[in-house]
Amino acid sequence: MDAIRNGARGTDDLTNYVYAIVNTGSVPPSGYTNALAGTMGFLTANYPGESNWRLFLTNGANIVGLLSTPEYTAVNGMPVPNLAGGGVSNRIVVFVRSLSGPAVGKPPQDNPILQQDSFSYHLICGNVPVQFQTNNPSAYAASLQANLHELRLTFLWPQLPNGNLPPMPAHQTYRTMIAGQLAWSTNLVAGQSLYFFQPLSFANAP
Predict the structure, then answer these.
(1) d(CA 203, CA 192)
(2) Rg, Å, the chain Cα set
(3) How far apart, in Å, are the Cα atoms of 17 and each of 48, 68, 115, 154, 196?
(4) Using CA atoms, how far apart are residues 16 and 197, in angstroms rounded to an integer?
(5) Around 134, how many Cα atoms within 13 Å sit in the side-chain half-sphere?
(6) Which pTM value belongs to this model?
(7) Which among 28, 71, 25 is positioned nearest to 44, based on CA atoms?
(8) CA-angle at 64, arms to 56 and 102, nearest 5°
(9) Where in the chain are the domains?
(10) For residues 74 and 88, what is the distance between their CA atoms, to the nearest angstrom?
(11) DSSP string covering 23-43, please?
């Protein structure tokens, strides 16, 4: 949560624990995942057969940039407050190995049996802009929506050896508010949208 809130770029240790990110959102009405998900192979139907995401989750900046994906984006990847004018609905699901536990199961562990036996869970990241009344929006409300987001992290466990969750998984949700501008970048990976909060930078909304 702190890494997302601060737009961290150097948390490369995340590569040892985050081993898949799946976007289960859709572009209405087609039902496909967004352009980033399709290009990098983050399709639910392709996991775990598709391996393109392995080439992308190579550093902490890429991981945090994906976890910060806003719930609503335009087709080109630009964050939008809602889908009133069309766009993409994103739902980011992360496959994570536990950061704590027995040392025998910690990276660099390439034994598939130990990897499957280690405690793993799913994490749903929701980056939602603060909503306001759209009938008569004020300049203050527009600025608030552009600079204030709610971050929801929902943990679901345990993950079964096949990568699925049990029918009724245990779950816990944590919420926090993040003040600052959400920067949208395609420079770190050519053609790919990554998002980073800038808590000391604020956007002027009309």
Answers:
(1) 22
(2) 18
(3) 16, 17, 11, 17, 20
(4) 23
(5) 6
(6) 0.82
(7) 25
(8) 85
(9) 2-198
(10) 6
(11) E--B-TTT----HHHHHHT--
Show Cβ contacts of residue 201 under 8 Å, excluding neighbours closer than 6 positions: 180, 181, 183
Per-residue pLDDT of the chain in tens (206 residues, 90 and over written 9) = 999 999 998 899 998 888 788 777 765 555 444 444 444 334 334 344 344 455 677 889 989 998 999 998 887 888 888 777 777 788 888 888 888 877 777 777 777 777 777 888 999 999 998 876 666 667 777 777 778 899 999 999 998 877 788 999 999 999 999 998 899 988 777 667 899 999 877 766 65
What's the distance, Cα to Cα, between the start and end of the chain in Å?
30
Contacts 24+ apart (CB under 8 A), 43-51: 47/20, 47/22, 47/163, 48/20, 48/163
